[in-house]
Amino acid sequence: MALEHEVIKWVDNMIEANLSFRRVFDPDTPSLAEILGKPRPQIQSQVPQQIQPQTQAPQPQTQSTNSDEFESLKQALNSEKWPEAVNKNLICDPNAEKDKIERGRGIIELMIDEDLKGRKVLDLGCGEGHCAFLASDYEPTISVGYDIKEHPHWRNFEERPSVLLTTNFGVVNDNGPYDVIILFDVIDHVKNETPQQLLQKAKDLLAPKGRIYMRCHPLTSRHATHLYHDLNKAYVHLVFTKNELNQLVPNSNHFEENIGPVYPIQKYVELIEKAGLKEVSRRDVRENPEEFFKIPKIADRIKQITGHDEFPEFQMSLQFVDYVLSK
To answer: How far apart are CA 317 and CA 187, in angstroms?
Structure first.
């Protein structure tokens, strides 16, 4: 009988834990006792009101999915209580050229604190090319945009003798060294090479008194994978596995794999030092995670996926880290 009671107790606890999680979003969710009409007989201990945090260190993310847990988290995701990743009024419309021009000019004026006139500029990982093109408005000797693949938008820009957009790294080398190198939201999304290799390339292309302006986008930030164009919900990549995200947002055109660190500052310092570069300045763009993400079931997922033993509040507060680097 004792074993039977323990089994009943365990089942009741699991049911009430699920009800407790649902109660966060719907205060009218009844308790197990209310559903049954009376408590289970001979069960002395109280049913817990929350899912208790894991007592052992979380394991790294796996691709297996607990269907019940996934459905429960999806219900939370679809509620209005789940905070947004980006203020909808600040999202750059990927289909609006005006928005992209404003964003490109904003990047130049936010990141670069020196006169570009008569300088050589390189946008390393230039994407659609707006920053490299708009930098020419500031009268550099040359403004080069490089990416690993040609973007169709490059053909839409008017021809300017000081602007060069290319996928040929030899051409980049031939026009160097550069006084100003922009690495904007690239180091955490790099493909076909490591962040260390990319930063080393940037150093090799830098003029002796040049500067690298680098924006880092930590994996632990609220919008690290750029999914907000499809699903504007904060930290979804830290709560759902890759398989689950593929189910939530299949065939996304905006998803950017983020290979960034879960201990951002420590890793960025290591990358900079190994590349033989010096930190001129650092600016942290911070926004603390909402209390919503400390709900035990959500917090446990975040700890599991990031590999942190404790809730990584500081790491999640780092939305961007901006560096100015020199040789």
So the answer is: 19
